Amino acid sequence: MADGGRTEARYKRILLKLSGEALAGEQGYGIEPAVLEGIAEEVGAVRTLGVEVAIVIGGGNIFRGLQASASGMDRASADYMGMLATVINGLALQNTLEKAGLKTRVQSAIDMPAVAEPYIRRRAIRHLEKGRVVIFAAGTGNPFFTTDTAAALRAAEIGAEVILKATKVDGIYSSDPLVDPKAVRLPTVTYIEVLNRGLRVMDTTAISLCMDNKLPIGVFNLGVPGNLRRMVMGEPGVGSFVGSSEPSVAR
Fold first, then answer.
1. Which superfamily, per CATH, for 13-170+217-226?
2. Which of these, 134, 166, 174, lies nearest to 148 by C-alpha position?
3. What is the rounded distance in angstroms from the CA atom of residue 29 to the CA atom of residue 20?
4. Per the count of CB atoms within 10 A, which of 4, 40, 207, 239 is most buried?
5. Nearby residues of 197 by Cβ (< 8 Å), 6 or more positions away
6. Which of 204, 173, 174, 176 minimizes the C-alpha distance to 191?
7. Cβ neighbours for 12, distance < 8 A, ≥ 6 positions apart
8. Could you give the count of Cα atoms lying within 13 Å of 27 in the half-sphere of its Cβ?
């Protein structure tokens, strides 16, 4: 990690992965406007550094395909419904970002030209180069893939330097810190260690895709104001990272 004296952003192009559940706030379902406003403030602070920002957002606050399929719904149909939920979230986030003065585009992997652009890689990159925030909605456009995998795929396609995954905890732990009081924080881990130990960072498909493309993953607590900027600046002691280097001991 960079030292505390860094004055320039460590990354020039990032992909921010947001869960749908995060948008629900304390209500647990739907969209909480205050949460969107907080995210817009965080993204705005990063944009002032000149960092290009792409976002992949989940839909679990509205509909979860896996849960529906477990209840008997056809898996493909359930997954498509989940993808549509991510479009709703993407449009809500776009509205809030634009109210905050950030130029934003939503690109959907499922064609719906009345509300969003189709996903076109070169167009997405051009938007980023022009300083626009790009929200990738509808996952990969295919059932049986999570938004974690969509984040890894889009990050690789647009040449993002890092995936920053926003969570409710301040990094990667040896087990769920919300359940296990003995959980140990791991500041850095390797892709292989994540897979072998079953650490809940991203699903195995996403981790494997990141490993193949040497794409680092940062995990941080979105609930702490300024954390996204700190991650982008490379401040020590903030979040955890997954990469190719040897794992370090917990701090």
1. Acetylglutamate kinase-like (3.40.1160.10)
2. 166
3. 9
4. 239
5. 174
6. 204
7. 50, 51, 52, 161
8. 12
Host H or E run for residue 163? strand 162-167
Residue 37 dihedral angles phi and psi, to the nearest 5°: -65, -35
Quick check: 101 and 47 in contact, CB under 8 A? no
Helices (H), the chain: 20-24, 33-47, 65-70, 75-99, 121-129, 147-158, 191-197, 204-212, 227-233
The one-letter amino acid code at 121 reads R
Nearest to 57 by CA among 142, 165, 217, 188: 165
Biggest distance spanned by C-alpha atoms of the chain = 55
Residue 37 token pair? 């406003």
Please write the tens of the pLDDT for every residue from 126-181: 999 999 999 999 999 999 999 999 999 999 999 999 999 999 889 999 988 888 88
Q: Cα torsion for 188, 194, 197, 201, to the nearest 10°?
A: 100
Q: Domain spans of the chain?
A: 13-170+217-226
Phi and psi at residue 42, in whole multiples of 5°?
-65, -45
Quickly count: other Cβ atoms within 10 Å of residue 246's Cβ. 9
The structure tokens listed for 44 are 């705005």
